[in-house]
Every structure is written in C-alpha cells, then in structure tokens.
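Per your request, structure below.
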C-alpha cells in the first residue's frame, strides 16, 4: 500500500518514513520533547513523507520534517498518513469543546504537500478539511486482495456492515451483505442494544465477514458477535484497518473465529497477539 506515484512527473521521490526512521532520526530530549534530524537530501528531487499521527508527538515530528524541507525549498510531493488522530472528532460537538479535526487539519495543510493520502479517514470531513487529500480505503482493498481473490479456504462469504453508515463505504460489489445496527445511551454513549437485519440473505453455513474502519475497545463488535452467531454461520470474521487498543484486539479475538487488522496505528506485527489475529501491513 505504500507504493504511490509522484505528482511531480519525471521524478522518483526521496522518502522520509517517520514510522521506521528511514531518511531521518528521532531522538528524545530529557524533558520528553521529540527531535527529528533529517538525513542529507538532494534538494532538486521531491520528497515523500510517510507517517502515523497517533498523538501530539507524531504531529510535532511531522511539523519538524516539514520545517526542514521548506527551509531548504524542497517539494513535498506526497504525504501518506497511515492513521490520523482526531478523525472521529469530525464536527463541533459542543461550544465548550475544541473542533479537534480542524486543528489537526490546519497543521497538515501547513506542511504544503502536493497530495495527501489518508488511510481510512473515517468520514469525508477529513478530506474536506485537508487540501489535496484522498482517502485510501484499506479495509475493502485488503478484503478483496487478501480474502476474496485468493480464497484458499473456499469461503462462501456474506459481508456484514456494522451500521447503515457503512453501506456507502463497504457495500461489496457482487457479494451478498447484511446490515446491523446499535443503540447508544444519548447521555453516556454506552452501547445498549444491537440488531441484525439479514432480510432475505441466507447466512446459515456461510462465512460472515464484518467490515469496518476501526476497532478501539471492541465493544461494538463483541456486542454484535452473539447476534450474528444466531444466524448459524460456518465462521465469523472481523476485518478492520485501524486497531487501537491491545485489550480491544484480545476481546474481539475471543468473540470471532478470525480477526484481520493492519499496522496503520501501531506495528502490531511486533506484539504478542492471539493466534487467530492476522496483521496486514500498511507500512512495510
């Protein structure tokens, strides 16, 4: 997924990858401040930057790289963001709370990249706020490339969309699908109940695949699992791009036969995970 074409015709861009310190070195000062030193670069050749933005430190490191490149009057042809913090805060919830997405978007815009790729940006709000941005729909890419096309296990797949909002993003072409729903307490946000609308779609003895962009604590998916088991599927799997918490991964791994995640948020391939969890690599 890291393969990108340069918007600047005729050049193969130089690469700075903040996730593995390719083209740069990240150190930490005694007070905790992150400090980035960029390797020597050919100022005539554009640069592509790869990063995760999971916290303020990651955002500050990106700002430092952009500062170095802009002072050397270099072109940043592409900025690839594997995970972007605040993408779920995509509107102003309350007059006394910040519009976090806009704050992050303003900083990303200040980098001045010719093109910005955001992996599973959660909603169109991120793309509207960030200039020259495109969404990389990794969940569906991995679903087709790693699950459907090889189909080594002769799966008879029915896609499961966790809510109606997922239809526009994850409705599969040429495959049956069902839609679920959930109810939250409007005051606390606590999940109260789950529904499954299979309609006329046959799910018994099928391989159900729940598709979504993100798993945080895992509550939605754990709550849906018993409802989906009532349909008597042959297997029940979950595929998400962004996996945030280790405990959330462990919870869904107990509820599902197979769980597929990526290393967009963290290098989960280096962590001790349950045996039924597979990590696809956004970052190689």
């Amino acid at each position: 997924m890291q393969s990108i074409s340069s918007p600047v015709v005729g050049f193969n861009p130089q690469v700075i990858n903040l996730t593995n310190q390719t083209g740069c070195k990240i150190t930490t000062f005694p007070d905790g401040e992150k400090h980035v030193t960029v390797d020597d670069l050919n100022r005539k050749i554009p640069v592509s930057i790869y990063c995760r933005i999971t916290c303020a430190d990651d955002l500050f490191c990106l700002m430092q790289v952009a500062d170095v490149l802009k002072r050397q009057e270099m072109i940043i042809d592409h900025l690839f963001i594997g995970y972007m913090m605040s993408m779920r805060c995509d509107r102003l919830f309350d007059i006394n709370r910040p519009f976090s997405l806009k704050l992050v978007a303003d900083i990303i815009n200040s980098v001045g990249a010719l093109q910005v790729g955001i992996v599973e940006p959660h909603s169109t709000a991120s793309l509207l706020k960030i200039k020259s941005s495109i969404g990389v729909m990794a969940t569906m890419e991995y679903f087709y490339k790693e699950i459907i096309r090889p189909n080594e296990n002769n799966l008879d797949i029915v896609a499961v969309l966790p809510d109606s909002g997922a239809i526009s993003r994850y409705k599969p072409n040429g495959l049956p699908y069902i839609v679920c729903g959930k109810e939250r307490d409007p005051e606390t946000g606590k999940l109260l109940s789950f529904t499954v609308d299979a309609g006329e779609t046959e799910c018994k003895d099928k391989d159900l695949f729940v598709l979504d962009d993100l798993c945080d604590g895992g509550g939605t998916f754990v709550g849906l699992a018993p409802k989906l088991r009532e349909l008597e599927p042959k297997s029940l799997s979950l595929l998400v791009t962004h996996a945030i918490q280790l405990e959330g991964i462990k919870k869904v791994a107990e509820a599902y036969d197979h769980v597929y995640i990526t290393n967009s948020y963290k290098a989960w391939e280096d962590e001790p995970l349950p045996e039924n969890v597979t990590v696809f690599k956004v970052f190689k």
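Residues 2-10 have pLDDT under 50 and may be disordered.

Regards,
D.
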